[in-house]
Amino acid sequence: MNFQFNRVLVTGAAGFIGFHLSRRLLKDGCHVTGIDNLNSYYDVKLKEARLESLTPFENFSFYNMDISDRKSLEAIFNNTKYDVVVNLAAQAGVRYSIENPQAYVDSNIVGFVNLLECCRHNDVKHLVFASSSSVYGANTKMPFSVHNNVDHPVSLYAATKKANELMAHAYSHLYGMHCTGLRFFTVYGPWGRPDMALFLFTKAILEEKPIKVFNHGRMQRDFTYIDDIIEGVVRIMGRLPEPDPTWNGDNPDPGTSYARYKIYNIGNNNPVELMEFIGVIEKILGKKAKKEFLDLQPGDVPATYANIDDLIKDVGFKPETSIETGIKQFILWYNEYYG
Fold first, then answer.
1. Which of 43, 98, 218, 329 shows the greatest Cβ crowding within 10 Å of its Cβ?
2. pLDDT of res. 260
3. Distance from C-alpha of 21 to C-alpha of 23, rounded to nearest angstrom
4. Model pTM above 0.90
5. Does residue 1 carry a pLDDT above 90?
6. Nearest to 126, CA basis, from 60, 178, 186
7. Catalytic entry in 157, 171, 261, 334
8. Using one digit for the tens of pLDDT, what is the confidence trace for 61-84?
């Protein structure tokens, strides 16, 4: 069921995806409240610069706070009534979850329960939340489908994202909440995260430092350009998930439910070899990379590939930005931002 929304709460608004979504919604005329704790997982100056480009919008307000702070979060919901809440606040990164597991529990588990409770008690029409392609874990059947079982995560990060899906389903079942989870596949583009491959590779190549090529380059990723992610998110925000009349407990479909709950993949549906990805960066920069070939890292998976049939069927959208176009846009931004 489609519906019109105007007042939106975006958590993680100073993050990569949260910033781009907030900017799109503000340009569309929505009233956006942003929340972010501006943590130091990566360069805080980059987060602040993203926020600076949002503050000129009169329809934007911002709170520097953590969603794990229940009292502060409740105060924001008591202050404004929201049509849609989009949860993009999370401790990101597969590798960092091995070093600092507690950060993932605080943000991705405690923070998410706080949001669920606030949405429940404040009659929010639709909760849309970021899951991740990492939930597919040890699955090898390609392309990854939301209708496949995902019970074998290979990192704590992935486990917390799967937990979000399960918690949202429980709230949908108990309280009739409309909840939609989005499994993003390797998002890249301007204003991207400094811990992601494109950012790391571009920086290292320009500085003539070696790049780390894991799994000896035998990695495949379904690289998805940020504008495609945002278009998918916005379309899904206005579509309330309804119970699936064909759902059957004898043969339960993980992607749908008897409740008002749905899961979507948002990916480019076109896995790219890591060496090809590096080749495009080299070509656009006009410089060769010094490569250091390494084994697969703990918690990482060799390949990702999204089945997006449900996304196409339900909201009529298919990501199609090529890596050549997307990488070029990132490098243009990188050169402008870092001079």
1. 329
2. 98
3. 5
4. yes
5. no
6. 178
7. 157
8. 999 999 999 999 999 999 999 999
Tens digits of residue pLDDT in 188-218: 999 999 989 999 999 999 999 999 998 888 8
Tokens of 84: 């849609």
Tell which residue, 179, 176, 23, has the closest CA to residue 86.
Answer: 179
Confidence of residue 301 (pLDDT cuts 50, 70, 90): confident
Would strands 7-11 and 290-293 be described as parallel, antiparallel, or unpaired?
unpaired
Can you say how many angstroms the Cα of residue 236 is from the centroid of all Cα atoms in its chain?
A: 14
Q: Does residue 157 carry a catalytic annotation? A: yes
> Which tokens is 255 given?
């992607």
Overall size of the chain counted in residues: 339
